[in-house]
């Protein structure tokens, strides 16, 4: 049976290096599962695989969309399922690498079909967010879908905006469209979550932000600053530097906030991963022996 090896974990833990190590051992290719690495022009701030890393192993769905293109977990699911048969042809194995948990779950378990959002509606909700603030969008969500309002992370504008968009587009509460039903896949899935001690992870994140700044993150953010209204740039690293460009904070404070907000994001990823019982957990340095054992146990050819 064809096999998909999923390498996931919190931001900064070392997923790219681990996935490359596994893919080189198996002679296969890697599919990106980071929702921001799909966009062109923001490779530094999203820690996308470098040209040198992509020369070692071919990566798919990296820098494949323009910043003004809408992209979703459901589109990602369709793209990956269409791509996998081509990647399996040589040896029946491929690697999926990333920490966007909704994207990973979409491929592994399927995602509920949701309506496409009309671009005018999307602009209207984003304008509401920017002009009236998150509290205004939250008030709409509470009115349109009290059930989802009760469970959503109300500090996450992306989730709140998405839910309001769905409610308005579908004409029914978003929560009524979320069945949670897991779909069976016609391929074997080996899912590995990388983990290190929390203080080690946070130190890695802090040092990686410093490395990003040295690599040119400030110039990259300034280049895309005119497009700051786009959803693709509503992400850690760019939002804080945009505030600096707007004169709302100092550069030192912006960098401090990037580090803090990235640590907060990593904590949310860890909470999500804690709910997944089928994960094999390991240190990044131990990923190949763990994958090898999992494949042997599952009967996959090495």
Instruction: Name the helicity range.
Output: 40-55%
The H/E string reads EHEHEHEHHHHHEHHHHEH
Domain count: the total is 2
**Whole-number mean pLDDT:** 93
Give the C-alpha Rg.
20 Å
* Helix/strand/pairing category: alpha/beta
Layout of helices and strands, plus pairs?
Layout: E1 3-8, H1 15-26, E2 30-32, H2 51-56, E3 59-60, H3 73-88, E4 93-97, H4 101-109, H5 119-132, H6 134-144, H7 146-151, H8 157-170, E5 188-194, H9 198-215, H10 217-224, H11 238-245, H12 251-274, E6 280-282, H13 287-298
Parallel strand pairs: 1-4, 1-5, 2-3, 2-4, 5-6
Helix pairs in contact: 3-4, 5-6, 5-8, 6-8, 9-12, 11-12
Describe the structure.
Helix content is 52%, strand content 9%. The protein has 302 residues and is an alpha/beta fold. It has 2 domains: 3-112 and 181-298, Rossmann fold; 119-177, Histone, subunit A (Orthogonal Bundle), CATH 1.10.20. Strands 3-2-4-1-5-6 form a 6-stranded parallel beta sheet, sandwiched between helices. Strand 2 (30-32), helix 2 and strand 3 form a beta-alpha-beta unit. It is globular. The two termini are 12 Å apart.
What's the quick description here?
With 302 residues, the protein is of the alpha/beta class. It is 52% helix and 9% strand. The chain folds into 2 domains: 3-112 and 181-298, P-loop containing nucleotide triphosphate hydrolases (Rossmann fold, 3-Layer(aba) Sandwich); 119-177, Histone, subunit A (Orthogonal Bundle).
